[in-house]
Amino acid sequence: LFAVLRIGHRPARDKRITTHVALVARTFGAERIWIDEADEKIEENIRGVTSRFGGPFAIESGVSWKKVAADWKEKGGLIAHLTMYGMPADESCAEMRDAKKDILLVVGAEKVPREIYEIADFNVAVGNQPHSEVAALAITLDRLTSGEWINRRFHGGSLEIIPAERGKNVIASEVQE
Ligand code: SAM
């Protein structure tokens, strides 16, 4: 099971990028996201996507990241902090896959508190250049699932997309779970 913890969210500036972090979390195999600052708009938006396109995917904002991290550890999960200063993703992801434990992926915004490097079991670098939390999360989940996220089935949504060579083919889902 994968979950994401988004820290340093600034509702005034980061709405779009944090929404993208949540969308990528949902699509690439995570089951939930916690966001440190309260942001009802993002919650509504992601719940809307989940009710249209399916889940399971949970979102909660306005949480204490320290508490989320401590609870996660207490339940026996691993914490992986994504940072350009960390260790190569391929090695770290292989180790995490072998551990066969739940993994909490932590991504930052502008500045990341020093402590997070300490509480993390893994500090994971997707290359050692600065880029984006969205890209870092997508690549890490791709590695952790060995690309299997693409086969994930979503349930309970009202819409289903049928792949089309041109245009959009969206149908109403037959089964409501
Ligand atoms: N300057 C910030 C810091 O103190 O680390 C990073 C800002 S960066 C725009 C936002 C987030 O993207 C980071 O906290 C990290 O989670 C992620 N990120 C950016 N580049 C990364 C990389 N090369 N590897 C892993 N994660 C990265």
Order of helices and strands: EHEHEHEHEHEHEE
User: What is the helical fraction, as a range of percent?
Assistant: 25-40%
Strand content: 15-25%
**Between the first and last Cα atoms, what is the distance in angstroms?**
21 Å
- The average pLDDT is 95
Poorly predicted parts: none
Rg, alpha carbons = 16 Å
Task: Give the overall silhouette.
Answer: globular
Would you mind describing this structure in some detail?
The protein is α/β, with parallel strands linked by helices and 177 residues long. It is 37% helix and 23% strand. It has helices at residues 15-27, 40-53, 65-74, 89-99, 115-119, 133-144; strands at 2-6, 30-35, 58-61, 78-88, 103-107, 122-125, 159-161, 170-172. The mean pLDDT is 95.
Write the layout of secondary structure elements.
Elements: E1 2-6, H1 15-27, E2 30-35, H2 40-53, E3 58-61, H3 65-74, E4 78-88, H4 89-99, E5 103-107, H5 115-119, E6 122-125, H6 133-144, E7 159-161, E8 170-172
Parallel strand pairs: 1-2, 1-5, 2-3, 4-5, 4-6
Antiparallel strand pairs: 7-8
The structure holds S-adenosylmethionine.
Q: Key features?
A:
binds S-adenosylmethionine; alpha/beta; 6 helices; 177 residues
In short:
By secondary structure, this protein is an alpha/beta fold. It has helices at 15-27, 40-53, 65-74, 89-99, 115-119, 133-144; strands spanning 2-6, 30-35, 58-61, 78-88, 103-107, 122-125, 159-161, 170-172.
